[in-house]
Structures are given as C-alpha cells and as structure tokens.
Input
Amino acid sequence: MNPVSLPAALGTFDALWSPRIVTTVNDYDVRLAKAEGEHVWHVHEDTDEFFLVVEGELTIALRESTGEREVRLPRGTVFTVPRGTWHKPHAAPGTAILVLEPTGTSSTGDAHDPVPDHVDSTTGHVWSSGQ
Output
C-alpha cells in the first residue's frame, strides 16, 4: 500500500456519482466520488453510510420517523446516515465526497427510486494511480 493523495486521485476521473475505491479498512471500502446535482432516494437496510465532504457542499435529504429533513454539509464536514434511513444526496457543482461503506455495498442501496442515467449504481470501481 502507498499513500493516496485525494486531490491527485480526483484529478484522474471526471464521472459524477461513480465512486472509486481508493483503499480499504478491514471489510470497508473508502470510496471517493465527484458529485453534482441529485443522486437518488435509497436506503441501506443493514449498514450506516459515512460521508466526508472533501470539496464543495453536499446536502442530504432524510426521511425519518418525524418527517423529512435536510442536512447541509460544507467542505470538511462529516455525517453518518443511520442504517434503514431513506436518503437522497444533492451536491453543488465542484463537490467531492469520501464515503465509507462495507465492501460490496451498492451506491444505490438495497432499495431505491428509479436510478437516473447520471447515477452509477455500483459497488465501487477500483482506483489506481495509473487511471
């Protein structure tokens, strides 16, 4: 393993909502993604989802027992969506996020609304510095 520069890794791809696995921790993927516009309403029934905003700003809409709410995450902010919570990320232009999820977790969850063409429903793409 070698250190990974997040800014350098971000410079190797342009796809939005298409996470790259930059490293692993135990049985978890550390995924880096560029994001802009809306993702899709989805839920991870058996796992939390950790977000770190590397650049830009991310807003996550949440459907909770008390109703819907939005969480605004500026650069440098972290937030964990609890398992079983329907959520929909929305990103400002120029946003990059780091997501921590168990290996094999779909980026569109266990259940989701129809997936738009600009969202990559994937378990992550292995990143290499030679991309």
